[in-house]
Every structure is written in structure tokens, then in C-alpha cells.
């Protein structure tokens, strides 16, 4: 059994996937820290190249394999044609992929539903962010300096005070003062 784990960004952790793949008995695990939008992922390509007939390709959840119905089905069909089984450990499609008859139909429908679900999540997130913006709320990290602090920093700088002294007086970093005064 050959495992594959993927997270979308370097800031994310794949430990949950790693634990599940180890518990499933994967002899080797390949990894990517990249979006599932493209199939040109180094870890995925290395795993697909490494596997031989009789192996089982194991992923934690179907969405770790890919985001689009077409890409996931292409990978699954390629695996089947090479005599490699596909096993999904968690989620709606937990189990092994059967590329025949009802199994193929069910797999195809569930992959399509997973893609639609992701699209709906993205759409809802965008709508929520736009609604919050329309109400004057912003997302992300709060600004380090208020308008009053910037005005005070400008006055202190005009009086000849150093960036370091201004930063200390305002309780922010020197780079923050420099950045706000140079804008």
C-alpha cells in the first residue's frame, strides 16, 4: 500500500493524514503541499510513477487526490488500467474504488458532488466576505497603528525623533513605524 497526503499550503499540517495512512499500513507515503487544482504535483506524480501492478494507492479523503471531477476520474481510471487499486480511508467514498458498473457510477457521482460542494463553500465564503465588507467590517489581522498613532508618529518624526524612539513610545515595531510613515 502506497499512501499520498496533501495539504494546500505550507502553513497547514498533514499529521492527521499521516497518522491515518500509517494506521492503514502504508509502506511508503508521498506528500504535496500544493493546491489540488492541478495534477502536476511532484508528490502525486512520484507516487503514480512509483506504483506497480498489484499495489494499492491510499488517500485519506477523496479531495486529497484532486479537486475536479475530471482529474480524479482520470487518475482513478489510470490506476485501474495499470492494475492498481484505489483506497479511500475517510469520507463518503471510504473504501475501495470499483471501476465497473454501479461502483463506477457511484464513484463518479460522489466525485462530482464533492466538486460541487467545494464550489459552494468557495461561493459562500466570497459572499460572506463581500457582505462583511459592505457593512464596513474587514477581515484579516488588525492594523498595528491607528490613524491617531500615525499622526503622532509623523509629528514626532517632523520634530527629529528617530524611528526607534517613535516605535518605543507608541509600543510598535520600528519597521511598522517606518512602513506607515513611508506610505
Automatic annotation (TrEMBL):
<protein>
    <submittedName>
        <fullName>Recombinase family protein</fullName>
    </submittedName>
</protein>
<dbReference type="InterPro" id="IPR050639">
    <property type="entry name" value="SSR_resolvase"/>
</dbReference>
<keyword id="KW-0233">DNA recombination</keyword>
<dbReference type="InterPro" id="IPR006118">
    <property type="entry name" value="Recombinase_CS"/>
</dbReference>
<feature type="domain" description="Resolvase/invertase-type recombinase catalytic">
    <location>
        <begin position="1"/>
        <end position="136"/>
    </location>
</feature>
<dbReference type="Pfam" id="PF00239">
    <property type="entry name" value="Resolvase"/>
</dbReference>
<dbReference type="InterPro" id="IPR006120">
    <property type="entry name" value="Resolvase_HTH_dom"/>
</dbReference>
<comment type="similarity">
    <text>Belongs to the site-specific recombinase resolvase family.</text>
</comment>
<dbReference type="InterPro" id="IPR036162">
    <property type="entry name" value="Resolvase-like_N_sf"/>
</dbReference>
<dbReference type="InterPro" id="IPR006119">
    <property type="entry name" value="Resolv_N"/>
</dbReference>
<keyword id="KW-0238">DNA-binding</keyword>
<keyword id="KW-0229">DNA integration</keyword>
<dbReference type="InterPro" id="IPR009057">
    <property type="entry name" value="Homeodomain-like_sf"/>
</dbReference>
<dbReference type="Pfam" id="PF02796">
    <property type="entry name" value="HTH_7"/>
</dbReference>
